[in-house]
Amino acid sequence: MLDLLKKTLLTGIGIAALTKEKVEEVAKKIAKEGKLTEEEGKKLVKDMLKESEEARKDMENKIEELVKKGLEKLDIPSKEDLKRIENRIRKLEKLHKE
Fold first, then answer.
1. Cα(2)–Cα(28) distance, rounded to whole angstroms?
2. Which of 33, 34, 89, 96 is 20 to 30 A off residue 2, Cα-Cα?
3. Is the pTM of this model over 0.85?
């Protein structure tokens, strides 16, 4: 659910990471218009892909943190909370059987 929410938010606000092909297309266009050498064009593609990936990861981290805070405010138990409760129930059931 969290992954779906993150993807929806990323798409909804237009921050979804550019595809490699799109970055290469944009970089080639810039290189052609700027009359860059092939080596400069390759460096531009590499730099743009790196920046795109970093921006995507940063946005995902921020969204994940916001979602966590939102869930805490709504007082929704986390996975860890549920696992602790399950473990306590198992222990109690085991004690009850003895």
1. 36
2. 89
3. no
